[in-house]
Write a structure and sequence with these properties.
48 helices, Rossmann fold, Arc Repressor Mutant, subunit A, five-stranded parallel beta sheet
Length: about 950
């Protein structure tokens, strides 16, 4: 085991080297000012101690002090402590300062300040001097002003001023001191990265490596070395670690995510520096989760807002809470969890129940009340009182739409408590099936709906359950059974008209999936006839959605778009229609883009993202993010695609198998284009697609990523084999035009012209149905490659340009450059190649550049360009999108407004802002704004034009 100080220095080699350099400079007579910034426990204080030890070793005079909350109340206290101004000093000058301070009747601060500055000058004349103050955010104003003046002395004296501070310190006078005219050295101490965290845990346990479960648990420490150390020690102390010389891992009993009791108590006990009222309020806040609103806190604490101000301000100043837009969040998740878990269990359950009732009576969203009600149920004794059961009867359907996980858990606990004669039982059973439908669990929905239908006596519940059963059977591919359920339901008397309309609509879906277009049309007409007089927006929207899908299958895309518009209007803003509305919008977006209407498609995507972020379930939100990433990839906004993929990855556990393959495939493909081989291999391995991705659903991007890997490994025949196997699957892949040009190119390169011919014919067949611009472009691309025809390739290039597809546009230019070079038309080949290179460089498509260079080199065509070294930090490291967002931040726009301005999602903007903060070493949006303003507005205008 290691000491706490040593633990906090793990992973700090670069910072330690920088500090040693500053100590050496002051010894050489060069002064400096250092701001050492980091959250508590992140290693800031340990680094400060290391610097002081190094300075003493080099022979410097070292003076240091630590400020605390009391320091703000006493003028010059911090500097007096730092310079050891006290009555027991052996220095006559220091004794004189203390005596004058003691005897002064008027305001002594100005005079004493001058004497302290003179004292520092005298000390510097005798030796190199280091003055250090820890936790300077607590310093009084007069000390800070003197510190500011001392920073001027450091310009020409052997004086090193070191201020250690928390980034959360927000006092205006701190900002003024930080912004002094001379340049100061700022070292921001970041959290430990994954490697350093694993190394520290291995060192603490004496093991060679750390197991994945332990590493995942340590992730809750958010890279804080103090918490990593305390978590490991607590786990070991309570026998939750299996550690030998080779590996340290959690024991099987540590799977519920709870903190070791001793750790939770230690963290909670360390919060004694704030008042008991504040601790009490934080315990209430911990009930609400990591992030909460002041309104919710007021409601559950039953205190007026004015009574919360002091406690909230104290928690913010102490860095326990931070602002997150209009909400508050715990600065560290472990603190929230410790406060929550150290509240006695009986009291905690009662507080959650009280919070549920308070939120319900205040009109809070049902999911907030549901979360609290669920948290009030004991694991050992799942009791829900009458109030809770009655609340569920009135709100379980909406809860199933807004928070299906919570609804399913609550209903699973509530239903067994009710007798078969309780009138609340049947509506709750029906709502539980709805939750399963919303969660995308057709097997469980089928089982529950069949069981409930067997003994229900309520015609309304029977109609709804029949609808859910038909949906689940159709989702499982059991079309015959789904049709039988619908037909039986339609013969059953007493069903309300809306449910009859929905039954006809789902029958239309089943008929369409089986390719029975006439039967599907007939079912849709009957659904519309029932839905319109019933004014059932969902049934009407579903029927129009099925009609639109049928038109799209017949390649009548323009009419299909109109149908989807009508479906969206019918569905409206009703929360229970959110999922279907997102599906309709997604289909409409794809059709608009396929028709070459890129701006309209972008508008539909923006509407999808806004709805999903506001009210979709996590599973649906993840699917929408994948759609957004797909679109951004296609139109060449790869940074935005990556941001959406990062956000979708956070919800990967909510995706079905097809969604996960889509996620891994697109992630791998982007990595391949960027020549990021490790990420490409990880994505392919995660998708388990090595053998034959062509036989898997949702595998187009996996297919391309696998082929790209084979080509990069100088095995083009394997790439041809992968793509050709997909071609033999017929039209299974509805978007095969995405990869058919690649198959033609690769097959020609390997001499397999028969495969190239089949691929070209297949693309021509697809293009002949409906004349969709994207497919027509791909067909021209294939034909131009097969026949070595520049005219066909020019036609493809023009279509790719008109439909806003820079990656495919560049690929067609590259192919045309090769064909022209083969024909001896070097000047035109060089021009086409140069245009392709410009697009590839803008995209960051490093692999495509390498491939294009290799193809053109035998023809003696080269594109002269210098080797580009991108900065890794500072303004120059920002991408064009990040710079544009930085300027919008400087204009004062919040993230939602930036998202609207850029036709992006809030989450994408959040990811970009976090990247900007990291690259600039900034702590806040204010500092981003300062840096953006310093670089002027012309750059943003240039980026906007180029975009």
């Amino acid at each position: 085991m290691t000491s706490g100080g040593a633990a906090e220095l793990f992973g700090r080699d670069s910072e330690l080297a920088q500090l040693r350099g500053l100590a050496g400079e002051v010894v050489a007579g060069r002064g400096n000012v250092l701001w050492l910034e980091g959250e508590p426990g992140i290693g800031k204080t340990a680094l400060l101690r290391a610097l002081l030890a190094e300075a003493e070793r080099l022979g410097c005079a070292v003076h240091h002090a630590a400020a605390d909350q009391l320091s703000q109340r006493f003028p010059l206290r911090v500097l007096l402590d730092c310079l050891a101004v006290h009555p027991k000093s052996d220095d006559p000058e220091i004794l004189g300062i203390h005596e004058r301070l003691r005897l002064a009747s008027d305001d002594p601060v100005p005079a004493i300040a001058e004497q302290l500055i003179s004292l520092v000058e005298k000390l510097c004349a005798a030796d190199s001097l280091v003055l250090a103050v820890d936790d300077v955010q607590w310093a009084d104003e007069s000390s800070l002003l003197v510190w500011h003046r001392l920073s001027r002395l450091a310009e020409h004296l052997p004086l090193l001023l070191v201020a250690a501070i928390r980034p959360s310190g927000s006092r205006t006078e701190l900002g003024a001191v930080r912004g002094e005219g001379r340049a100061a050295v700022r070292i921001s101490v970041p959290p430990l990265d994954e490697a350093a965290k694993a190394d520290l845990a291995a060192h603490l346990t004496g093991a060679a490596e750390v197991g994945p479960a332990l590493l995942e648990t340590l992730g809750r420490a958010a890279g804080n070395p103090r918490y990593v150390r305390e978590m490991v020690l607590a786990l070991a102390r309570e026998n939750h670690l299996d550690a030998d010389g080779a590996r340290a891992e959690l024991t099987p009993d540590m799977t519920d995510g709870a903190l070791p009791r001793s750790l939770a108590e230690a963290i909670a006990a360390r919060l004694g520096f704030v008042g008991s009222d504040t601790i009490g309020l934080l315990r209430m806040a911990a009930l609400l989760g990591p992030t909460f609103s002041v309104t919710d806190l007021r409601t559950v604490s039953e205190r007026p807002v004015v009574a919360l101000v002091g406690c909230v301000e104290e928690a913010l100043t102490a860095g326990l809470l931070v602002e997150s837009g209009s909400r508050l969040t715990f600065q560290h998740g472990l603190i929230r969890q410790a406060l929550h878990e150290t509240t006695p269990t009986a009291l905690r359950l009662a507080l959650h129940h009280q919070a549920a009732r308070a939120l319900a009576s205040s009109g809070a969203p049902v999911e907030r009340t549901g979360e609290q009600l669920l948290a009030s149920i004991s694991v050992d004794d799942a009791e829900i009182d009458d109030w809770g059961l009655d609340w569920l009867v009135g709100n379980s359907r909406m809860l199933a739409h807004r928070a299906p996980d919570c609804a399913e858990a609550l209903l699973g606990s509530a239903i067994p408590l009710l007798s078969t004669h309780d009138p609340r039982r049947e509506p709750l059973r029906t709502a539980r099936v709805l939750a399963m439908v919303q969660l995308g669990r057709p097997e469980q929905a089928r089982e529950l709906s069949e069981r409930a239908l067997a003994d229900t006596h309520d015609p309304s519940c029977a109609a709804e359950l029949s609808w859910y059963l038909a949906w689940s059977l159709a989702a499982l591919g059991l079309d015959d059974l789904a049709t039988e359920v619908v037909e039986t339901a339609l013969r059953t008397p007493g069903f309300d008209r809306p449910w009859v309309a929905r039954m006809h609509a789902v029958l239309g879906q089943v008929m369409l999936s089986r390719g029975h277009f006439e039967a599907a049309d007939a079912a849709v007409e009957r659904a519309l006839a029932e839905a319109r007089p019933a004014r059932d927006g969902f049934a009407l929207g579903l029927a129009l959605h099925v009609r639109g899908a049928a038109l799209a299958r017949r390649c009548d895309l323009a009419e299909a778009v109109i149908c989807y518009e009508q479906a969206g209007a019918a569905l409206g803003d009703a929360p229970e229609n959110t999922d279907l509305r997102l599906t309709v919008l997604g289909n409409r977006m794809m059709l608009l883009f396929g028709l070459g209407q890129a701006a309209e498609a972008e508008g539909a995507l923006h509407e999808m993202l806004a709805i999903a972020e506001r009210s979709a379930t996590p599973a649906r939100l993840a699917a929408v993010r994948l759609s957004a990433a797909n679109h951004y990839y296609t139109i060449g906004r790869w940074e935005d695609a990556t941001a959406e993929l990062d956000a979708a990855t956070e919800l990967a556990d909510r995706l079905d198998e097809a969604g996960r393959r889509w996620l891994h495939g697109l992630s791998g493909l982007l990595a391949g284009h960027r020549d990021d081989r490790p990420t490409l291999l990880r994505s392919l391995q995660a998708a388990d697609c090595e053998e034959n991705p062509a036989t898997r659903s949702a595998a187009e991007f996996l297919l391309l990523a696998g082929a790209m890997r084979a080509e990069a490994e100088s095995d083009p025949r394997r790439a041809v084999r992968l793509l050709a196997e997909a071609l033999t699957e017929g039209k299974r892949f509805g978007t095969r035009y995405l990869w058919l040009p690649d198959l033609v190119r690769l097959a020609i390169g390997t001499g397999e012209t028969e495969i190239a011919g089949r691929a070209t014919d297949a693309c021509a067949e697809d293009a002949a149905v409906g004349a969709v611009p994207n497919i027509v472009a791909a067909s021209q691309h294939c034909r131009g490659l097969l026949e070595r025809d520049p005219t066909a390739l020019r036609a493809a290039i023009e279509l790719y340009s008109k439909t806003s597809q820079p990656p495919r546009y560049a690929r067609a230019l590259e192919d045309m450059a090769v064909v022209l070079a083969e024909r001896g038309e070097s000047a035109q080949a060089r021009t086409a190649y140069g245009r392709a290179v410009q697009v590839y460089q803008k995209l960051g498509a490093t692999w495509d550049l390498r491939r294009a260079d290799a193809r053109m080199r035998p023809h003696g065509v080269r594109h002269a360009r210098g080797r580009r070294h991108r900065a890794t930090n500072g303004w120059e490291s920002l991408t064009p999108t990040e710079r544009q967002i930085a300027h919008l931040v400087a204009d004062g726009l919040p993230n939602p407004d930036i998202a609207a301005a850029l036709f992006s999602s809030r989450r994408t903007v959040e990811v970009h802002v976090s990247h900007i903060l990291a690259k600039l070493g900034a702590r806040s949006r204010v500092e981003i704004a300062v840096e953006a303003t310093r670089h002027g507005g012309e750059e943003m205008r240039s980026d906007s034009r180029s975009a």
